Amino acid sequence: MTVVDKSLIGLVGEPFTEEVEKGAIRKFAEAVGDPNPIYRDEEYAKTTVHGAIIAPPSFPTTFRAPMPGVNLWGMKILHGAQEYSYVRPIKAGDKITVQTRISDVYEKAGGSGKMTFMVTETAGKDEQGELVYTGTTTIIIRE
Amino acid sequence: MSQTYFEDVQLNEAIPALDKDTIERLQLVMYAGASGDFNPIHTITEAADAQGLGDVIAHGMLSMGFLGQYVTNLAGPGGMVNKLQVRFGQMVRPKDTLTLKGVVTGKDDCKNLVSLDVWAENQRGEAVTKGVAQVTLPSKSGCGCSCDCK
Question: ipTM for the complex?
Fold first, then answer.
């Protein structure tokens, strides 16, 4: 188990490419209980401004990009906050290359002991190298 | 899906709420599989208990997924979600029932961009996940940018 401290700030993970499969989008929408046809009906999707099946806004959580310098498995972790910002929606068939950077680590005294906050920034680019989305994740590690 | 236009939403007005079905443990198993988040605190009672949580808690990202559904519904077939940012404030557990709510906090006439406060409320009226969103809506004038039309 690694120690999560300020020495991790600035570490960048290996780039990781994921092909966005329409079946993965449909199963994600089903798990969320979202009946929107734009996630499953190609004919309907063609009539929308996007022209194709798109992925839900929180779908990049499925891209399990390598975390640089730290393995959180087995730690007492909670998800503190999450942001996704889009240049364009992710579409079925996109090959998205994601890379994660640890941007901050800080500590706070919580009611039940020390809590360590780790903030990571992820950028997702398409095959042309154009930015599609950015994600910011705050993870809370409890002692 | 019906379309909400940029002209339809007004500053400080609420967006119609969306009631989700009661969360069952099976939904957490489905979400674990669909998202790839297999942290056992979401699916296995003993693992959650060992971490002092008593019983399983829902993935925070599930409530963000609900809010994603809510703002994508607002965007409709002609708009898009530009941003969704949330803070996970309170734990959500099986048998909780969440309702999604939102209020318009800003309108950018040049970009047809609507800013919103959005949140997920449980059956006790507690806001468990709070956030902000930005959604681009089509304009009734058919113009992508109202400023260019003038």
Answer: 0.94
